[in-house]
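Q: For a teaching handout, I want to show students what a protein-ligand complex looks like in token form. Below are the inputs, and the small molecule is benzoic acid. Please produce the holo structure.
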Amino acid sequence: MEELKQEIRLPRIGDPAPDFEAVTTHGTIKLEDYKGSWLVLFSHPADFTPVCTTEFMAFAEIYGELQKRGVELLGLSVDSVSSHIAWARNIEEKAGVKIPFPIIADLSKEVTLSYGMVHPGESKTETVRCVFIIDPNQIIRAILYYPLTTGRNMAEILRLIDALQTTDQHGVATPANWKPGDMVVMPPPKTQEMAEERLKQGYECKDWYLCMKKL
Ligand code: BEZ
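A: Here is the structure, written as tokens, with benzoic acid included.
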């Protein structure tokens, strides 16, 4: 029998974040509850697994930094609420780390499928390590995917949020390896006139298309 191939449409940068109403460790939560805040929605493969446990401790560690930037954090896996609660209690008991953010129990896989969090080549049943950065208008602004075996880098998640917020605030772009305080990049000029104007404006330009400035 021919295998039934289901088209999976992955959400993309710039798309409205797929709507959801989900059961979590903090009660029922809807996407619209986060309107007006930034949101980091992340998935992990399974509760009570080693890499995921290190990630949860690391997410708890940066929770204060996220809050300072107006960012909420929401976890997800296809485990039950009871499993999430037991795992969070275990992390607190064994490592002394309290998990302060809600975790979606997506047993039905509704949220998982609408965000394309299962990558069947990696695992047919578990969600891979996804990070969706959703802005206050509920637009997806960045997506990271990591395989089951690689824990995510919290410094990069914070750096990405800082870069997006800097872009929004100042209408600039950020260069490779940028971190807050570094020079930012002027977006490419759209006309010849803008290119010529730019060279007169006191930016640090290597040429008309690569101009940097301090904020
Ligand atoms: C882990 O978190 O350690 C893990 C989870 C699923 C597959 C492999 C590793």
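A: Two things your students might notice: Helices lie at 50-68, 81-95, 110-114, 154-170, 192-199. The chain is about 30% helix and 20% strand.
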